[in-house]
């Protein structure tokens, strides 16, 4: 049985499939920004943000993990993980047969109890014995995880070249207020055709899709500690109030209230 190396400097240095236990955990200490390569593993993976923001990209979506939330990556799903500078993150790896988890990627709200159980499990040797204290703790954790509520915190994307160009450009320059008509001209298509393409590829209108992209970026930057005023400017809003209105409409709370509720 492999031994656990607590000095792991990168998540890619740890192979969860080398262990047969139902659930094992790994805590990634705050460090320089990490952008992982595309990979997959037999175990399903729960990516938990303790502090800062983490994002995960799969084939058709980018999932954001703000503090007190987690993104679930089902077994054998190709994905890459990006951890922002000074973020603190836990990975929980779960055997496919151990628990009934969603069959597709999703964001979960993580209660203080589940968070503490995951952090405690991360401090244990993953090669724990069956019927041990650690094994019983893992079973309690999995039982509570079944009740974690789902949250809609992802951005639908597509491999279509035009959608990919849109996505890359707006992530690089989120304050770009280019209209759908102007984007159609840039992409050598009609406005109607581009509108249909965005809708069919993402399930959202162009305006709603760009707003969701802004929400993802805002949550990430706010989790990093940037001020509401700076984030509003980064996203090209004419005023802080306009940004707060968008945020409140999407999540039901102002940025300050939202992050206070997470704490």
From TrEMBL:
Cited SMART domains: HTH_ARAC
Entry annotated with the keyword Transcription regulation: yes
A family per Pfam: HTH_18
Entry annotated with the keyword Transcription: yes
Keyword annotations of the record: DNA-binding, Transcription, Transcription regulation
InterPro entries according to UniProt: AraC-bd (IPR003313), Homeodomain-like_sf (IPR009057), HTH_AraC (IPR018060), RmlC-like_jellyroll (IPR014710), RmlC_Cupin_sf (IPR011051)
The HTH araC/xylS-type domain, residue ranges: 164-261
Gene3D superfamilies: Homeodomain-like, Jelly Rolls
Entries under PANTHER family matching the protein: HTH-TYPE TRANSCRIPTIONAL REGULATOR NIMR (PTHR11019:SF199)
Protein's name in the database: Helix-turn-helix transcriptional regulator
Top-level taxonomy: Bacteria, Pseudomonadati, Pseudomonadota, Gammaproteobacteria, Vibrionales
